[in-house]
Amino acid sequence: MAGLNSSEGSYDVVIIGGGIVGCATAYYLAKRGLKVTLLEKGRLAWEQSSRNWGFVRRQNRASPEIPIAVLGHRLWRELSSELKAETDWVEGGGLSLARTEAEMAPYEAAQEEAKAHGIDTRIIGREEIQGLIPGMEGQFVGGLYTASDGMAHPLKTTLALAEAARSNGVAIREYCAVEGFLTEGSHVVGVCTEQGEVRGKITLCAAGIFARNLSRMLGLNLPVRAIRESVAATAPMAPLTNLTVFGKEVCFRQTRVGSIYLSRTNLGSADFDVTLEAFRNIRHFLPSFLKYRDILRIHVGKPLWEDILRAMPWSQARRRPFFHAVDLEPAVNSKTVAACIEAFMNHFPALGPIKVERTWAGIIDSTPDLLPVLGPVAAREGIWFATGHSGHGFGIGPPVGYLLAEWIAEGRPSVDLHPMRFERFAEGDYSPPGPIG
Fold first, then answer.
1. Domain residue limits at 67
2. Chain-centre distance of CA 330, in angstroms?
């Protein structure tokens, strides 16, 4: 292919990254009449946007995210009909379990904050939980319940947004990695890809974990670390629940075809593969690392040595920095999967042995405060970021895209995104994350 912009001129917006945030932003921008192109280094939705749990929740979110999730709830309810494609949206409710009264305590504040935003979140006891999910046993005293939270199919939703964007005129190019930026002074005016140059008035980086590498090409520092989480899917079984269930020992939901997705957030459930990136921004990550040190399982091995080799002067990565990262298949942690299965069976002993049909892992782009980075960069006109969703970006993917499109087209978003600004880490204006779950 010749230079990508050779016959098309420049775009209003160039989007880097074909996950749910990139595709949603492209769609909502195109609906507003902007000329948009989306560039993906591999396949659309190959990474975390098709590997997450599929939870769509408003409860237990950090305060700045709640208005985004509230907007998202309205969008999700109409998304399938708007896109004329199936997202497998089910408004079956969300439940966060507590094993002890101490774990119940933070739910009081979460309940009050949800009420302030008009969300139907409330604390419930063990008996009501067993009424919602008949046959459920195990160690829990109660939980936080939102009847109108839901779930959707990650891959179907992301591809539906991509197709709707394409139908509205967005030029989507897969296997087209961005390898640099075009600049005029401090102003970013486009990107250099493996297929040529693409110019745009605004370049939006929605590249997930790889946004940190791209930021450094512009002399910017984006503190993001990679966390690997493993998921298992069972063979289809009889209807069990329409709830999304978040527990310390196991998290699960049942898909429309009956399969149960299983993961967890308890001891050693998240894998942290040490690479050269691990040594960057240590001061930003140290508070959250100490707080959640029992959750992280740290690995020093092959990923670090591969990263060192890629940093060598003769490495191909010097010329093609993302060649090694196309269509990655992260390693599954079999211990995590086994622990999920055991915990799930403890909750549902009457089911007997369960059959796991497939397992997979995904890489989460996590920030020091577990909030995303959204919006323009003050020091570099023309570059925007939408990344660092820290494992809870699927549910707010459509509203984030909607708000960014609103901001770009109209000059401001209808929800306050200031707490998610790029500069907050350098300014020291952020707080370590609160309790998980």
1. 11-427
2. 16
